[in-house]
Amino acid sequence: MNPGDKPLVLLKAEELQVTRGGALVLDIPVLEIIAGQVLALIGPNGAGKSTLLLTLACLLKTSRGRFSFNGREIDAGRGGVDYRRRVAMVFQEPLLFDATIFDNVAAGLRIRGAGREEIGRVVPGYLELFGIAHLAKRSARKLSGGEAQRTSLARAFVTKPEIVFLDEPFSSLDPPTREALLGDLERIIRETRTTAVMATHDQAEALRLADRMAVMNGGKIAQIGPVAEVMNRPADDFVASFVGVETVLPGRVLRSSDGVFTAEVEGGEIQAVGHLRPGERVLCCIRPEHVTLSTSTPPPGTSARNAFPGTIRKITPLGLFHRVRVDCGFELVAYVTRQSLDELLLEEGITVMASFKATAVHVIPRQT
Amino acid sequence: MDLILEGIRKAFFLIFTLDAEVLGITLLSLKVSGTATLISLFIGISVGTAVALSRFPGRQLVVSLINTGMSLPPVVVGLFVTIFLWRNGPLGFLEILYTPTAIILAQAVIATPIVTGITLASIQNLPANLRLQILALGATRVQMVWLLVKEARLPLLAAVMAGFGGIISEVGASIMVGGNIRGYSRVLTTATVMETGRGNFDIAIALSIILMLLAFFVNAILTQIQQRERPR
């Protein structure tokens, strides 16, 4: 796609509603799936991610809703089989047939009436692509979790679907297996320019694979947009808390000038960027990676408008970095590397200076 | 003890000399029970799959009835089939009472709930999302049902064995609706009952051994298929 070209909407759902036992479990006014892009659906359990995927894959009856695929309304005849043959879905469990890996991968082609010659020509390439060629003759009952999920993915991709729906495909895998499969899937999706919609509760997966992200809550999409936008500009406090903005401070604007305002939060005052009027209520969201810790006052080489002395309450190792909780009258969370932790001699109970820029504060205006 | 040994000796004599009457009884038993099994498979797999895949008011009651039917006493089936086929009965116009067809009918009634119940359990035991996965692979409803049945094929072979085993060895219904007419509707079980009643234990033992061998070979063949089916 050239810059300036309008993105092609491959699938559009409008006024989508699903009820279960009289309760509305999915309510989405409009959702557009852009061709060649990966949309990640994130949200807590019960948010409606799987229901939305099943609905988009034409596997679940809706109470209301219109779907158009490539600009044309989806033909619901014969259970939408024509549409279902143009998309594919991978579930959390691999759901393989009691047959060999080859036969499992060939299943979608056989269902479409492909002959032995075509199957023999197409399937080996996909077994190779997903790294399971050496298992072709093995029973699906004798696979590890990772091998089974690779088979399931190969079975979905072999039919060259125009959209792949992925329902938490890595959630039951151990971390090294998940990492390897995620890497391969990322490569395959990019190489084949596959349009995909993936439900996940793992932000790392979403960040790695997705172009756009939709945060779901209570059967609704709380926010949808490019990944960076959703991560850095959460639309409300739910999105903020879910996408990992660990410091969310409710406050009230005290004064404002030249696009910078000062908000009073519990235990202090914060400067942030935005055209808000005094008296307005706001949520100030500060991502941990935007908070700098220092043992000197003021922090050297920084233009941070916000600097607060505070006491380190807790240091939690998180793999490559540490999560440091600082009590500044309000709580701030910072991420620091192991190296910084050692150099600054950070430990629980000591006083540090926590700082962040006014531009690092994402402000969500709140209704009073 | 001599009685038993004599019976066994007689059995092998009748088998290896291909005694015409015994051969006829054996072939009729196979034909009648085989046909009844096929009928029960057709109805049982269809109904079992339909009930397993659908939700409707009163489904629980239907499942309970099927499960109860799995232990339907053959004499009760024999009684009701006889009443139905009796000259003045609802199906009396068919004029098939005391014929091999009547035995097939009664045995199919006995075997169908067994096959239905095992089919129902087999389909229900498949992973809950497998149906959706098959549809997601682009299957029509018919293809989906076929693939589910195919996926449950190993437990379904057990249904064949249970159905055939249940009717090849039943006697109550066969004697009631077949009449045990020599050279016409006499099968292995009814002949065994009759010979025992007459005190001809050697022939009765011979017929019993043939019956057991028959059940063994049919089940051995099905077991062989069942075990070979699973890829390594």
Describe the structure.
The complex is a heterodimer of chains A (368) and B (232). Chain A has helices at 49-56, 77-84, 101-111, 116-129, 145-157, 175-192, 203-209, 227-232, 237-242, 338-343, and strands at residues 9-20, 23-34, 38-42, 64-69, 72-73, 87-90, 163-167, 195-200, 212-217, 220-226, 247-257, 260-265, 268-273, 281-286, 292-294, 306-318, 321-327, 331-337, 351-356, 361-365. Chain A is an alpha+beta fold. Chain A has 2 domains: 9-241, 3-Layer(aba) Sandwich (Rossmann fold), CATH 3.40.50; 247-365, OB fold (Dihydrolipoamide Acetyltransferase, E2P) (Beta Barrel), CATH 2.40.50. In chain A, a hairpin with a 2-residue loop joins strand 4 (64-69) and strand 5. Chain A is globular and about 75 Å long. The two termini of chain A are 44 Å apart. With 232 residues, chain B is mainly alpha-helical. Chain B has one domain: MetI-like (MetI-like fold). Chain B contains 11 helices and no strands. In chain B, helix 2 (20-53) packs across helix 8 (153-168). Chain B is globular. The model of chain B has no long low-confidence stretch (mean pLDDT 91).
List keywords for this structure.
heterodimer; A: 368 residues; alpha+beta; Rossmann fold; OB fold (Dihydrolipoamide Acetyltransferase, E2P); 2 domains; six-stranded mixed β-sheet; 10 helices; B: 232 residues; mainly alpha; MetI-like fold; globular
